[in-house]
Amino acid sequence: MFPAFLKRTYSARSSSLLTMACAFLLALGVAVPAHADSKTLKMATTTSTYHSGLLDYLLPEFKKDTGYEVQLLVTGSGKALKMGEMGDVDIVLTHSPKAEKAFLDAQFGIDPHSVMYNDFIIVGPKNNPAKLSNDDNAVQGLTKIAKSQSTFISRGDDSGTHKKELSLWQSANVSHNWSNYRSIGQGMGPTLNMSSELQGYTLTDRGTWLAYQEKLDLAIWLQGDPAFFNRYQIIRVNPARYEGLNVEGAKALSQWIIGERAQTLINQFQVKGQKLFTADAKTSN
Length: 285
Description:
The chain is of the alpha/beta class. The chain has two domains: 4-118 and 230-283, Periplasmic binding protein-like II (D-Maltodextrin-Binding Protein, domain 2); 119-228, 3-Layer(aba) Sandwich (D-Maltodextrin-Binding Protein, domain 2). The chain has helices at 16-27, 47-51, 54-66, 77-85, 97-105, 138-148, 160-172, 188-198, 206-212, 247-257, 260-268; strands spanning 40-46, 69-75, 91-94, 109-124, 152-154, 181-183, 202-205, 219-222, 229-237, 270-271, 274-275, 278-283.
């Protein structure tokens, strides 16, 4: 039996208490029930879809259309997929292609669909100590940051953004072990805040940047490289592996978010007048 507060129904931003409680229980090795009732389903998702405000915008429309309430567990993609592996959620929305492939290959997940894409950017101090140029690609920019030993703040949390950062260092053939490289094990918001406080560079999704930028003493230095492409995929947790999943609710969300109405809403979503995501629904397998 779980405490009453774990059974409450949340929408979008009001899910933070549930998120922290479930994460704490999972850390202790305690299984969390996948859903409270047939009209409630649990989705593990990334901080970028949450902090950008996209899910606050989409999920009330999903509830209007289907009657289903979604409880969000907001974390990095790696931890979100781990919740799926444990059968603690009904569905995941993530942006970590290699980890998603492993999740599907191990038959923890089924029915993958690409939902949308956006992009990553590299932001940093306005005085630009690494002397980045707007003409630099990702590899050139990261090489300059490393050679100058400028402060770089890494999420270090096994998220999709963290995995992308590591892959970019690998592509640049650069070791990220200098003293001013700091891996903090935090989400995107805290990482941006620390980058601003310490005047360091960091890799961020554009949506979270737009949500936070007015509070930050940072500027965009690298963007537009195809290497910064960032696709999001929705995957149902495999009901053949776990009892008690809200199979119908997960199906409803998966089909709704790749449907014409949701895809139009995604394309219309803006923050500060800028479009953040491009709808891209298709079966990904």
